[in-house]
Amino acid sequence: MLATLLALPLTAHAQWKPVEKVETYAISGQSGAELYRSIGEKGPLIRGAKTRTMAYTNFKLTWSGRDYKPRGKDCVLTMGRPKLIITYALPKPAGSLPPAVQKSWDVFIASVSAHEQVHGASMVQMVHDIEAATDGLTIADDPKCSKTRAEVVKRLDAISKARVQASRDFDRVEFGDGGNLQKLVFALVTGP
């Protein structure tokens, strides 16, 4: 019976799935170098950055049924059900490519997509971490739920900062000397 009770929150948390979308922006060129140059010219600017990026992953997280409920003198947070929308922004050639360039592009974009999906997976993990850290959170002597709200903000801030740092660390390795994406860019630019 204890195993059944312990499994209930995990089962409830496992019932949701993220919505994943891919948005593309058009690039042009007939060689790998031209395509990469076009990425640099047309790639998205994210969060006020001064330089363009080749791809990025963004998310929107909302909750249904999430509520702070006074219970006597205490406050309990019921998590509800998350709705996570993950959007991947990727480059896409506007026209057809020569066969050798197409082959090189296919390898490049598959790896860039896989890289962005790692970021997407970290966003899914973040939601699971939020659920684990806040679902059923009960703060004693908090009938107006103000202490509970402050504690939730504190916990979410820590979870968010950890996700952002892990994402930065991952990108640093991927784009660093000898990193996977550095190698892919080099292969695309020096290829056909």
Largest sheet: 3 strands, mixed
Q: What is the percent of helical residues? A: 40-55%
What strand order characterises the main sheet?
1-5-2
Q: Low-confidence parts lasting 5 or more residues at pLDDT below 50? A: 1-13
* Tally of helical runs: 5
Beta-strand segment tally: 6
Output the radius of gyration: 22 Å
How does the helix and strand content classify structurally? alpha+beta
**Multimeric status of the protein:** single chain
Shape: elongated
The chain-level mean pLDDT equals 89
Outline the structure in words.
A hairpin with a 2-residue loop joins β3 and β4. α2 (32-42) crosses α5 (180-190) and α3 packs antiparallel against α5 (180-190). With 192 residues, the chain is α+β, with helices and mostly antiparallel strands. It has helices at residues 2-14, 32-42, 99-134, 146-175, 180-190; strands at residues 19-27, 56-64, 67-71, 74-78, 81-93, 138-139. The strands form 2 sheets. A 3-stranded mixed sheet has the order 1-5-2. Mean pLDDT is 89; it is low at 1-13. The chain starts with a helix and ends with a helix. The chain contains 5 helices and 6 strands, in the order αβαββββαβαα. Helices cover 53% and strands 22% of the residues.
